[in-house]
């Protein structure tokens, strides 16, 4: 993406009206046990960046933006590096597709373009974050529980496959972060 298009995309993204973040805990009584922010989830910068990539892909799908995936690849290159960024973006896109195939209900997510909203997690985002973090820590049982909840009780085989690949592609674990991605 050229610098001019990237600048135009960022300007358009800033024009998105401020939205109230969607918090977890609204669907079922069990949702109150999920973390409501990236900090509560123990996410490091790579986890937070990956959740933001997933949000960009989902935003592009939801808004019908045929170029939304281009923005995700650019963000991945900026956040990670030009060599690993495209691989991580591809695996994030595969994960989104697996979620869409294996989840019957909708997937609620916060906008990736609002710094205030991006630090909060919906129930579904919390399930993804917990699963990703557990896979990065090699805690397969914990990941399986979170991803089974994401799949509404059905086997999360395909999602686990792509998230495991994604977890292996991410940089080494660091201390949890509370900083924003914007």
Briefly summarize what is shown:
The chain is an all-alpha fold and 182 residues long. It is 57% helix and 0% strand. The chain has a domain at 45-169.
Order of helices and strands: HHHHHHHH
Chain-averaged pLDDT: 82
What's the total number of strands?
Answer: 0
Amount of helix: 55-70%
* Low-pLDDT regions: 4-10, 13-26
Overall outline: globular
Largest sheet: none
Question: What fraction strand?
Answer: under 5%
> What Rg is obtained from the alpha carbons, in whole angstroms?
15 Å
What would you say this structure looks like, in words?
This protein has 182 residues and is mainly alpha-helical. It has a domain at 45-169. It is built from 8 helices and no strands. Helix 3 crosses helix 4 (85-102). The radius of gyration is 15 Å and the shape is globular. Residues 4-10 and 13-26 have low confidence and may be disordered.
Q: Keywords, please?
A:
182 residues, mainly alpha
Which secondary structure elements does this structure contain, and how are they paired or packed?
Layout: H1 3-14, H2 45-63, H3 68-79, H4 85-102, H5 115-118, H6 123-136, H7 140-150, H8 157-169
Helix pairs in contact: 2-3, 2-4, 3-4, 4-8, 6-7, 6-8
């Amino acid at each position: 993406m050229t610098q001019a298009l990237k600048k135009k995309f960022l300007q358009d993204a800033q024009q998105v009206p401020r939205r109230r973040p969607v918090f977890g805990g609204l669907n079922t009584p069990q949702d109150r046990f999920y973390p409501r922010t990236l900090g509560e989830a123990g996410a490091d910068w790579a986890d937070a960046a990956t959740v933001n990539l997933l949000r960009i892909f989902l935003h592009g799908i939801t808004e019908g933006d045929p170029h939304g995936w281009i923005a995700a690849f650019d963000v991945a290159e900026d956040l990670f590096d030009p060599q690993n960024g495209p691989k991580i973006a591809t695996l994030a896109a595969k994960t989104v597709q697996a979620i869409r195939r294996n989840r019957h209900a909708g997937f609620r997510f916060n906008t990736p373009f609002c710094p205030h909203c991006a630090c909060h997690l919906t129930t579904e985002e919390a399930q993804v974050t917990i699963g990703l973090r557990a896979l990065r820590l090699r805690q397969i049982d914990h990941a399986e529980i979170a991803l089974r909840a994401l799949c509404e009780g059905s086997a999360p085989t395909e999602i686990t496959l792509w998230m495991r690949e994604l977890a292996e592609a991410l940089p080494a674990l660091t201390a949890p972060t509370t900083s924003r991605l914007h």
